[in-house]
Amino acid sequence: MATVTFRDETATGKPVAELEVAGLPERMTVQELIRLRVREEVARYNARPSDRFNGLVRPDDAEAELNGYRLREPRRIDWERQAEIAERAFLSNGFFVLAGDRQVEDLDEVVDLTVDPGLVFIKLVALVGG
Question: Is 114 in a helix, a strand, or coil?
């Protein structure tokens, strides 16, 4: 069994957030890892709902804030809906993922968690006027 660390960083490499999950298979696809990450962060949020969600992608009807999203009111979030949003964001370059020292580019790409136990997620921000 493997342990993976999901780490969010800025484009300049500054750490923003970290989440560790243990008891995983040694090899998983990027799609499985994204879905796992989203499921975990939504489960943690749903256990203690608030008006602020810190996660990979923005929930429906939420406003982006620095390092998170503000909800109009605390509510349960559907992890499967969030996972679909995250998969689409990955495919449209809304964020990219580094496994070790390489960028993974395909949802079907397999990551060996015994070799690359840390995944770095870098969200890309649209430039104003660009």
Answer: coil
